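Possible race condition, two jobs.
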Amino acid sequence: MKYRAKGRKSSGHEFAEFAPALFILLVCIVPPMLDLLYLGIAYASGWYLNHLETREAACAPPSRVSDALARARIAWEASTLAKFTKGREVSAVPNPKDVNPTDNFSPDTIQITTQVQVAPFLQIPFMGSIPGIGAPIIFSFTSERTQEERGIN
């Protein structure tokens, strides 16, 4: 006598449940997941631009900070990371800070605020108004570094 478990029979009707599950997985879960993974890479790309700009601005005399920011932006746009993320710089605002204006030997700092706009990896039609998934998103970064060159020499 064969033992047979009560419940479903293994006659092949599992495929009827597999098709809707696969559709939901491939349409509703995978594309937003890819977009969210892509946002992490895009955020890292924007941080990298801010880091480049801060480093270049700290090494340039205060009168040439705008040229240093332009060089950093051009170098970032030529990188593979920026091309992959389809990012573009919205703004880069330098903010020099004089820690002690009466002392020429105190370390001055420069603060750079960078905004980067990134287009989503996949355009999902039913999520059109969500930034980063259906619409472009703007990331804002701020960093500060000691000013190495003060333009005194």
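Job #2 (started ~2 s after job #1):
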Amino acid sequence: MRIAYIYIIGLLSPLTAFAQNNGTSIQGNVNMPSLIQLDVNYPENLNIGFDNLEEFAKGKVYPNCINLAVKSNCPWVITVRSGNNDFAATAKTSTTVPSSIISVKPSNSNEYVSVSTTPKPLLVSDNDNVINNYNLDLKMGTPWNAEGGKYDLNFIFSISAQ
């Protein structure tokens, strides 16, 4: 029986040894654009301000008050800036409050980024995940010499491919 198997394998060996590859190759291009999306979320009732003189003297921190949701297929950088040099008073006041009294940082970081009209790097992609979420802490410094009242300020978060 062994001789029969060896004999059959021996007869088939030349057929496989001289077989030709009639495969066809395809060559082309794949368009892979950089896809980036940034969503900024914050509580609708976020009320930033001072409740007493101690908070006013030391400043106030709002932990995890802003969430940034990033979806991207490439490395990215997020910058932050203010829309104006100063807060806009909702009523007539004789003083201005500079936007630089506000700073933000990722909640897992120790380094605050002061807000100004110049874009400043806030976050840089640090992994290969397509979806990333980051919580930000907001710190409000003391607006010395500011009159009481309500003030508005726009934050602008921008994302770009690295």
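The chain has two helices and ten strands.
Logs attached separately.
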